[in-house]
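--- STAGE predict ---
source: upstream dedup step, 1 unique chain passed
mode: sequence only
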Amino acid sequence: MSNINAVSGVGSVPGWDAAVAKPGANQEMDKNTFLKLLVAQLQNQNVADPMDPSEVMQQTSQLTMVEKMNELVESQKASASVTRLSLASSLVGKNVSYMSGSSKLSGAVSEVRLVGDSLTLKVGSTDIAVGDVLSVS
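--- STAGE serialize ---
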């Protein structure tokens, strides 16, 4: 995640430091936390030395960019899962050879499942990981 630079001319805001920087807690800043901090900075800024508007724009632009990148990553993950499942489904009805412990076994694939990030093939009554397949015929 991108770092958001501190804004000069802003004093500490009581209670915010405890809520944001708890040791061991998730240190990522979401959009709502960022906006709350930005509002607090604006409310508590030094009137003699106000925040530079370009700094505010830079920070909000960075937040938007990081959010869009996260959305793109999630979209790519979903697309990759669909592609993997589609490719694996072409194995249904095919005979595969696979390793089970130290034994080489074979059988026809009757089902393909995607559980989380793992593809599993059903061969007879056995579930096997796609990575255990040695050959397809």
